[in-house]
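Lab notebook, bench 4. We co-purified these components, and the gel suggests they stay together. Before we commit to crystallization screens, I want a quick structural picture of the whole thing.
Request: model the full complex, all chains together.
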Amino acid sequence: MHSESAIPRLARRSARLNEVPLLLVRHAHAYQRRDWTGDDKLRPLSANGARQAEGLTSVARKFAPFIKVYSSPYLRCLQTVQPLVQALGVDLKEAVELEEGQSSAAVRLVRSLAGKNVVACTHGDVIAEILVTLADEDRVDLGPNPRQAKGSVWVLDGANGSFTSAQYFPPVLVETV
Amino acid sequence: MPVRDDEKQAAATLALLAQAVDKAGQGLVICDGNGKVVLRNAPARELMNAREGDLLAEKAVEAALGRALAGADHEEILDLYSPTRHTLEIRAFPLGSDGAGKKPSGAVALVDDVSELRRLEAVRRDFVANLSHELKTPLGALSLLAETLDGEEDPDIVTRLTSRVGAEARRFSRLVDDLLDLSRIEAGATGELAPVSLLAVLTETVEAFRDQATTLRIGLELAPVAEDIFVMANRRDLSSAVANLVDNAIKYSEPEGAVRVSVERSDGRAWISVRDQGVGIPRRDQERIFERFYRVDRARSRWTGGTGLGLAIVRHVAAYHGGEVSVESVEGEGSTFRMSVPLATEESSGE
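Here is the predicted assembly.
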C-alpha cells in the first residue's frame, strides 16, 4: 500500500515519464583548510567525510543505474564519489565545470545532463548557484528552507535541458571497514 | 367587497414581487409541484436565453428543480463553452415542504453567472503561487549561501559568497518595495493628482540612469522639448513608472545601443515614449508583459535583477491617471513603450 505522500509523487513521476533523476552531490566533509598545507585541490576527506562517502552509495543506489559520474577534479569530490563508482561500476569523468568558483559553466553542464541518469559531485558555492538558477529560471521548488550539508544529495528531475523538481537527501553516515 | 379587495391587493403584491425579483442580481426560476415553471425573472431569462449553448443551462436548471422537487437541496457548477465560455452556479431548493416527508409544492432555482468571479479567483491563485515562489527563491538562496559560508576559510570564496548574499538580499528588498508600491496603487491609495512638469520628471529620471547607461556603454538621451508640458499626476508614481520604462530599456539593450526618451502632446494628453534598440519582445509575449511576474526571458531577468513587477506598476500608474501604456517591438530591432497621461488644464497648471 502506498503512503499518502508517495501517491502524489508517483502520480507526478508517471506524468513525466521521460524525466530522469540527476544526482547533485556536495562533497563530503574534508580536512579543514587551516590543517592542510598542501594544494587545496588535493585536500582529502576527513574520517567523517569518508563515512559520508560510503553513505552516499546507499542513497544513490535507489536511483541507479547511472550512465556516468561527473566530478570536480578536486580530491575531496573524487573521494566522495569513489565508493559509489566502485560499488555500482560506473565510469567516472572529471569535469572542470564543477570546480569551486564555477557558476554559469556548471549550470550549462548540468542543463546538458538533464534527462540523463548521472551523478555530479561539486562544491557548496557551485551547488548554491545551480539550485538558485533552477529555482529562478525553471521554477523548481526547493522547499521552505533548502539545505546542502556536506555529503548531501539533491535529486533533480528533468529532461531536455530543464528541470521540474528537486528533492533533498541529507548525508548518511556508514561505517567504513 | 372585501374579498375582491383582498384579491386586488394580492395581485398588486404579486406584480410588485415579480418586478422586484426582476431587479435581483441573480437568476431565479420557480416551478410548481408538477415541475411546471411558473416564474422566471429577467436575469434568468437573460442567462438562459435560448442561445445554442444555453440549452444546456436550461436543461441543468430543469434537472436541478426536479431534484429539489424530490425533496433534496441541489448545487452544481456548470461550465459552458459556447457561444462564449462562461460558468454558472445553480442552486435549487424545495418549497412548501414541512420536512416531514410531505411532497414539496414547488421548487426554486437560483442561477448565478460566476465566470468573472472564477476568473478573478484564478488570477488571485496564480498571483499567490507566483508570489510565494518569488519570495521563496531569494530566501532559499540566502539559506544555501549561508550554509556554504559556514566554516569557509578561504577569504576569496568568503568575499564572493558574501557578495552573492548581498545581491540576494537587495533582490528581496526590491521585490518587497515593488510589491508594496503595487499594492498601494491597486488599493487606490494614490493621493491627489496635481499639475506636474513632465520636463522636470523626465530630466530627473534620465539623469538618475546616466551612470548606469554609461557603465553599460548605452547612449541615453532626452529628446529636446520646445515647451514644458504639464500633466495631472502623482509625481512620485509618474516618476516611478517612467523610471521602470527607462530601466527596462537599458537592461534589454546591447552595448553601443541607444535609449531615447521623448514626449509629445496630442488629443489632450502627453505621450511619453521610451525607445530602445535592444533585443525586442516576441509578438506572442507582447500582450502579457504587463502581467505581474510575467517574464519573457527568465535567465536574462535573473541577471538584470528584475522583480517581474515593473511593467505591472507602469500599467497601473497609467490606468489610475486615466492614461494607458502600450508597446511596439520587433525582435532584434528594439522596443518602444508609449505611456499617455492627461494634460493639466491651463488654469490648474498655474501658468
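The domain at 24-169 of chain A is CATH 3.40.50.1240 (Rossmann fold). Worth comparing against the SEC data before the next meeting. Helices of chain A lie at 6-15, 47-60, 75-88, 104-112, 124-137.
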